[in-house]
């Protein structure tokens, strides 16, 4: 009996580890898609990684913004056209799973534009909704 419990524990552990690896890659894919969309100058596509809800929380230099549409409007005001958006790169520092459906991401961002190169850090909270990882909180500075 003890032998079967140990085998069951090992199988569950392997399955959990494999799922975490898949989820980690899925989050990295979301971030890569965001980077690609940004670099195409497509803010609307970039925003598809965020939960389309009034509960979305974005915290930036001007403070908190609630809601998907408000966040989109802020991006459009702050980054006028492809030249204003520049070329975005990310540096992902860590991805921690808070539970099977919630992840914390820490990273850096860098924009290369004709006249400047702003950069900073971000923390994101991702939530798995209907099988898709979506950003529900973004704190970028």
Automatic annotation (TrEMBL):
Q: Does the keyword Phosphoprotein apply?
A: no
Pfam families xrefs: DUF4440
Q: What residue ranges carry the coiled-coil annotation?
A: none
| DUF4440 domain: residues covered | 27-135
What range does the record give for the signal peptide? 1-20
Keywords in alphabetical order: Signal
Name assigned to this protein: DUF4440 domain-containing protein
Origin species: Pedobacter endophyticus
- Phylogenetic classification of the source organism: Bacteria, Pseudomonadati, Bacteroidota, Sphingobacteriia, Sphingobacteriales
């Amino acid at each position: 009996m003890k032998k079967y419990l140990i085998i069951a524990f090992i199988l569950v552990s392997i399955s959990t580890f494999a799922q975490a690896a898949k989820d980690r890659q899925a989050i990295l894919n979301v971030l890569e898609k965001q980077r690609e969309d940004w670099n195409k100058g497509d803010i609307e596509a970039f925003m598809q990684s965020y939960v389309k809800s009034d509960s979305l929380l974005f915290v930036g230099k001007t403070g908190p913004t609630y809601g998907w549409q408000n966040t989109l409007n802020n991006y459009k005001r702050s980054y006028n056209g492809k030249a204003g958006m520049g070329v975005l790169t990310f540096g992902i520092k860590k991805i921690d799973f808070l539970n099977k459906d919630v992840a914390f991401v820490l990273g850096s961002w860098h924009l290369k534009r004709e006249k400047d190169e702003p950069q900073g850090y971000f923390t994101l909270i991702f939530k798995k909704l209907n099988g898709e990882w979506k950003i529900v909180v973004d704190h970028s500075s």
